[in-house]
Design brief:
The structure is a homodimer. Chain A is an alpha/beta fold. The first copy, chain A, has two domains: about 160 residues, 3-Layer(aba) Sandwich (Glutaconate Coenzyme A-transferase); about 240 residues, 3-Layer(aba) Sandwich (Glutaconate Coenzyme A-transferase). Chain A is about 25% helix and about 25% strand. In chain A, strands 20-19-18-17-21-24-28-29-30 form a nine-stranded mixed sheet. The two termini of chain A are about 25 Å apart. Chains A and B meet through loops of A and loops of B.
Chain lengths: ~525, ~525
């Protein structure tokens, strides 16, 4: 495998699964050309005039869609770890004797461990999409036939839109749908919130199958997925386990260290002057973030300040902000708990967004860069502020990218993380896998202090005299190494075997993931 | 000009404005191939990270968009006869010295008479789009440089989607917008309801300019037009005259003849068994249709029946149906009065649709064919049930097609019309211009009786014994000729000079419009 060195000094393969790759050129350096992909032109003459596209079962739909060896099949992670449909789908594909599928999920979860047998027997050739947990471990150990490709949510949209990934058949799990294929995730027994991750697939795939366990009379409203893009509708008894599709409630951290991090974030954004009328932010559903929201709310109330919009993943904490009048809008990309789902159904100002609106870098701007500050996590951060979200220091690929890369363009990107986990430092001299370049990462907030990127002199100035524990990142690095008894052991990697590559938001390759040698 | 004969026996030119044409082949006979058009791939690196795309004025936006001689510029008729923007746009184009523009409006109105000087001086080469009133007269008299092309709303979407019409610059009038280009028509001083006719343009045009007289902080919600498709935003003092953009209220007819027609429609759909739980229909905003709605409501209430959905053009009469619980949904393509606009803003179940969802024939089905019955008008109907909506019997092109052709695929298509107008018969032996083939037209309802297409034996059976004045169309034809003293005089046409062509919903040419010879 011929390797190239990219603009951040990482080695990346010239070709991946037979496709030529462009090495990462630097932020905003790639000049895309050409036109967006187009789905095949269809005619109403080929579709039932009464709009009823229901076919007997998944197998029939796949047959009608012309499923063949080597095709690309896409699925989505809206059902998270409660997803039964994707496993059912590949059981069906296997039963049809089909081989060498490129599986293109928006993400995979531990529940998809079921599919390892299909990776072994050649039903699935390789996975392009985030691999959380067991599938990542399987890939890390060099067991997958092809090379994995990880993209951010925005990068996945970009790849489909730009024609870099051509989807033959998209299979969309729809918690509610009508016979025409209009579909929504915000209601039904398997409600998951929204279906934005399937938007690109519905627009660009050659064939689109909607599977639902809650068929309603036309029209299914809202139509998060438009029936006009759908070929076949399939009824299934159940899409999965509702309790794993969505949490009853998301939970604030109780760890004193993590609560301290949350408090530091709140104090930092206040000191930096972000909390003012009309501001915006994005914070996910992790325990630290939820605690931060509680502190932030108190500060907003004390100051009498209202946000213009907040970006989800939504949780009951964001919903409270909306319903208490602390923000005009929630612009939501993914609902994490039942209150998020309810609010999306009931509140005009709880808005359904998508990787197109929020994250696509090959668009005419996107929402991510308009946000005042974003609070994210990481598995590792290094002395150059480069960060990793996909591998651990032992080299294992265990997490997806999600919207993380896309969010880095916010006006102030904050990584909030404990300085070590299981006595392994999180602040390292060099990240195992480089997923986000340090020039986009502005602030690191840990329980032992806050490091500000030296490029952000404005932020350094703003928080001067605030009493916050501002430190150089080198100082945090030293402190953590002392506590943990030294740097993490370097992973045992086979540098001759790339098991996956990490795409940047523009489709270039920013780093490689190598096979882990078992001891 | 070489002429071909199409499947309905009409002569059509082989080429129009240098582009080769496909003659109409029969309903559903064209087999489209290839892929949908794609807009150029852009990068966020070229757009302001804070999302602010506002430029100084229309001229600056046009310059940045690279306006050149011969380009195609699209506009939309959401502002109807109150539109000031399109005139302002062409004043600007003229002042820039640009020539030979193909103007591609979704429709034009009498207010655009202002543009005749630009058709004369070569600023505009020709119009592709419906021409209502003065522009139609100008074209009919052979004064336009190029040949006009008329399409239905769905046909316009199809032509853009299929790459048949490539738009260089789309200019979208937005009653409310934010600096990112998100736009809505349902609020603001120039509120018009929705912006669905600009949807295709926003997706497929090379450059998209949003012009607004009501700039709001991001996010503008709802985003009927997505800022992610927009290049430039321009503030203008006023988009036009609100009283001509939307009516205060739409008015029911007071003519006894027309009230009788409305009553017949209501009795016919009742007798035919359409009024039952879960039914659907579409009826526009003409005086007959509004009167029909009143009769229909009474019948629905008497029967205790609820519709699943009704299709607008919405008016206060449809809104009343929604708010009184007589329908679950309004699926609205165009709001005609202030109550329609208010309801679209306030009611979750008053749904914004588009030519993509409702009318595009080169899609995976559309809403139009799912509707139980539709009530439409016409300028002429002939003995074969063929109908005309664009020219009068004197040959003058004075009306657009609107969604009329697209609606013909409903389960029962009813044309409701007076049997004569100004003592000129509306039922004729052969239509001047064939816009809709008789095989799609099921019922003609006039004040003198009802004619059912002999192909629809089911309908003939259903209303047998209803006491309704069912007649053969030939009988209506004879009666009307007697009243009017004979058939309409044949128009004086120059058959060697095609001034416009009429497209069918699949992009083929169904008929030609000829130059009218002045006496």
């Amino acid at each position: 495998m011929k390797m190239l060195t990219n603009a951040v000094g990482r080695k990346i393969p010239q070709e991946v699964n037979g496709q030529k790759q462009t090495p990462f050129l630097g932020i905003g350096k790639l000049r895309p050309s050409g036109r967006k992909a187009g789905a095949p032109i269809r005619t109403c003459a080929d579709y039932p005039p009464d709009g009823n596209k229901v076919v007997k079962n998944l197998r029939t739909a796949l047959e009608k869609a012309g499923l063949k060896d080597g095709m690309t099949i896409s699925t989505h992670h809206h059902l998270r770890n409660g997803d039964a449909l994707t496993n059912m789908l590949f059981d069906t594909i296997k039963s049809m004797g089909i081989k060498n599928i490129r599986w293109f999920p928006s993400a995979s979860f531990p529940v998809h461990e079921h599919l390892i047998k299909y990776l072994k027997d050649g039903t699935i050739h390789h996975i392009e999409g985030s691999m959380n947990g067991p599938l990542g471990r399987f890939v890390s150990e060099g067991n997958m036939k092809g090379v994995g490709i990880l993209r951010s949510h925005g990068g996945r949209y970009q790849a489909i839109q730009d024609g870099e990934v051509h989807i033959d058949i998209a299979v969309i799990a729809a918690p509610t749908a009508d016979t025409f294929g209009n579909a929504t995730g915000d209601r039904g027994p398997s409600a998951c919130g929204l279906l934005g991750f399937a938007l690109a697939d519905s627009i660009y795939a050659d064939n689109v199958i909607v599977a639902t366990d809650n068929l309603v009379p036309f029209p299914c409203v809202p139509w998060q997925i438009q029936g006009n893009n759908v070929d076949y509708v399939v009824e299934v008894p159940s899409l999965g386990d509702p309790s794993k599709i969505i949490s009853g409630t998301t939970k604030v951290t109780r760890s004193p260290d993590r609560l301290l991090i949350a408090q530091y974030i709140a104090e930092f954004v206040e000191a930096a002057g972000f909390i003012k009328d009309g501001f915006s932010f994005q914070a996910g559903a992790g325990g630290i973030n939820l605690a931060f929201l509680q502190y932030l709310k108190e500060k907003m109330k004390a100051k009498g300040v209202k946000a213009r919009f907040v970006r989800g993943g939504s949780t009951k904490y964001l919903v409270e902000m909306l319903e208490e009048g602390l923000t005009d809008y929630i612009l939501d990309g993914q609902t994490f708990d039942l209150e998020g789902v309810r609010s999306m159904r009931e509140n005009f100002n709880h808005i359904n967004t998508s990787p197109f609106t929020s994250y696509n870098y090959h668009g005419k701007g996107n929402f991510a860069s308009m946000i005042d500050f974003v609070v994210l996590g990481a598995t590792e951060v290094d002395l150059n502020f480069n960060a990793n979200v996909v591998t651990h220091s032992d080299g294992y690929l265990l997490h997806g990218i999600g919207g993380w890369q896309n969010c880095l363009t916010s006006k102030c990107t904050i990584l909030a993380l404990p300085s070590f986990r299981d006595r392994i430092p999180v602040i390292v001299d060099e990240v195992t896998t480089l997923v986000g370049p340090g020039e986009l990462i502005d602030v690191i907030i840990t329980e032992r202090g806050i490091a500000i990127n030296p490029n952000r002199k404005d932020l350094l100035r703003a928080v001067k005299g605030s009493g916050l524990p501002i430190k150089k990142i080198e100082q945090l690095f030293e402190e953590v190494n002392q506590i943990c008894g030294g740097k993490p052991a370097k992973p045992l990697l086979n540098r001759d075997k790339v098991v996956a590559v990490i795409k940047w938001v523009d489709g270039t390759v920013i780093d490689s993931v190598y096979q882990v040698e078992k001891e």
